[in-house]
Design a protein that fits this description.
The structure is a single chain. By secondary structure, the protein is mainly alpha-helical. The protein folds into two domains: 75 residues, Arc Repressor Mutant, subunit A; 144 residues, Arc Repressor Mutant, subunit A (Orthogonal Bundle). The chain has twelve helices and five strands. A three-stranded antiparallel beta sheet has the order 4-3-5. Strands 1-2 form a two-stranded antiparallel ribbon. A hairpin with a 2-residue loop joins strand 1 and strand 2.
């Protein structure tokens, strides 16, 4: 037996790593509640996992979050999953009471702004020209600016046509504010008004079911054609309204940072 063999035999085997104690479920729930209730923005699953130094896997975390959601179901505050992550929010039925003591009044938007937002949400990505073709009136710069400043829309690319007009699409914040996880959860167009009223406190505006679907002679009878805001009161376009979703050239250059 060589000296090397003797030395190797004398080296003790490494002690096994101590087993981690299983996480206390009640503690996990209380920590998650504390983090989510104190956060000003939705928290992602990865952010929530860091609370437990990675000891909790994604599936286990999601299961616990669902349990917390059920536990809070009968309260005035609910846990919801939105595009940017998980958050607690006051249920819409109770928000009107809190608004009475809030110094920050909910913003109110004109019909022009809400119609423009609806077109972008349901036909994105679209250019300003697409929006004007559908509404039948010119879109004033302040209309798009109001939506950009609120963080609901963003420029996601440019159409490869003369002038390379900007392409607009909705953002994750837009989905968060409507308490949605993806664009697939957008309500039917005729339900958009009540959804915006409940979530954003906007002024009522006429139902816009024909807004994205009118063509030909029907375009002249749409509310957008006859009830445009004074700042946008240009003569309505008598040409058939174009389907911005199917008529747009395939050479659009888009970025990937907008909500889908």
């Amino acid at each position: 037996m060589t000296d090397e063999t003797i030395e190797a035999a004398e080296v003790p085997a490494p002690a096994p790593a101590p087993e981690r104690e299983p996480l206390d479920l009640n503690l996990v729930k209380r920590v998650l509640e504390a983090a989510l209730l104190s956060a000003s923005e939705p928290l992602t699953l990865q952010q929530l996992r860091r609370l437990f130094a990675g000891e909790l896997d994604v599936e286990g975390l999601r299961r616990i979050l669902e349990e917390i959601r059920e536990e809070w179901a009968g309260r005035a505050v609910e846990l919801t999953a939105v595009a940017s992550g998980w958050r607690f929010r006051v249920k819409p039925d109770y928000q009107k009471y809190l608004d009475r003591i809030s110094s920050e009044k909910p913003p109110r938007y004109s019909r022009a702004v809400l119609e423009t937002l609806a077109i972008i949400a349901y036909r994105q990505p679209v250019t300003r020209g697409d929006i004007e073709d559908i509404r039948g009136v010119a879109v004033s710069p302040p209309t798009l600016k109001a939506l950009e400043e609120r963080g609901w829309i963003d420029v996601v690319g440019y159409r490869e046509t003369p002038g390379r007009p900007a392409l607009f699409a909705t953002t994750r914040k837009f989905l968060d504010d409507l308490n949605l996880r993806s664009l697939e959860e957008l309500p039917a167009l005729e339900e958009l008004q009540s959804t915006l009223d409940a979530a954003l406190g906007s002024e009522p505006f006429p139902a816009q079911e024909p807004l994205l679907g009118a063509t030909g002679d029907d375009a002249g009878d749409s509310p957008a054609a006859h009830e445009a805001d004074p700042a946008e009161a240009l003569p309505p376009d008598e040409a058939p309204i174009r389907d911005a979703a199917t008529d747009a050239p395939s050479q659009d250059t888009e970025q990937d940072d907008h909500a889908r």
